[in-house]
Specification:
By secondary structure, this protein is of the alpha+beta class. It is about 15% helix and about 30% strand. The chain has 2 domains: about 80 residues, no CATH class; about 140 residues, Immunoglobulin-like (Sandwich), CATH 2.60.40.10. The N and C termini lie far apart (about 45 Å).
């Protein structure tokens, strides 16, 4: 769902079904029911509030932000979903960071380094505890199914764009100070990725390297982390 026009006192909404929703509706067997919905704010630039303050910044966002129209592709329709949090005095929310490395880049190859285990952990500023309702119990891990896979687990879905989605339970131990959770998936180059595929998918000007991304998102907090994966031919 998205706004078509909010320049006047009349609010015009455009509501569409995603491709998956249309598939379910086409069954025509009465099983299609809308039982919940989510809101998102992809188009909002919150640095405006940091720059102009809450009052003026909020007004600038409301009056000047272009509003996205509804799209039917569910995997891109909502990337930054809003969360309802019951804590009235919450001033910080957790983010995700990559543990034990100085770069958000993983380097693999198809010869002898086909996999790498990464640890992504919740962090929160001010030495605070992560609110219990924001402690991620499950993480959503997404990657290009042409090149990569998570070892030891099957994807719950693969989109038309070949993006595989995995749901991975958090590590058993929570951080002893902040109560934060973490997840440690092992990212592996798929055996079907051959040297000849680099000619098609390799970086422009360097057909010995394929660049791909892995996105890890906490199901409870909504925080996400993008990892760049460089796959070398040799």
């Amino acid at each position: 769902m998205g706004f078509l026009d909010h320049s006047t006192n009349n609010i015009i909404l455009d509501a569409v079904l995603t491709d998956k929703g249309r598939e379910l509706l086409s069954r025509n067997d009465g099983s299609f029911q809308i039982v919940k919905f989510a809101l998102s704010d992809e188009e909002v630039d919150y640095t405006i509030i940091q720059k102009f303050g809450r009052t003026v910044g909020k007004e600038k966002i409301e009056k000047n932000t272009p509003v996205l129209e509804a799209v039917t592709r569910g995997n891109i329709a909502q990337k930054f979903r809003l969360r309802s949090i019951s804590i009235p005095n919450l001033v910080r929310i957790p983010s995700l960071t990559l543990e034990g490395v100085t770069s958000d880049t993983i380097t693999l190859n198809i010869v002898n380094t086909r996999s790498s285990s990464v640890t992504v952990k919740q962090t929160i500023g001010g030495d605070q505890l992560v609110p219990i309702e924001l402690v991620d119990q499950v993480f959503r891990v997404q990657m290009n199914n042409l090149f990569l896979q998570a070892t030891g687990i099957r994807p719950v879905s693969i989109s038309k764009e070949n993006i595989a989605t995995y749901l991975i339970t958090r590590s058993s131990a929570l951080d002893t100070v902040t109560g934060a959770s973490s997840v440690s998936p092992t990212i592996q180059v798929k055996s079907s990725l051959t040297s000849t595929m680099f000619d098609t998918f390799g970086v422009a000007g360097d057909k010995t390297t394929i660049r791909s991304y892995v996105t890890i998102t906490g199901q409870q907090s909504g925080a996400s982390k993008d990892l760049l994966v460089k796959i070398n031919k040799t």
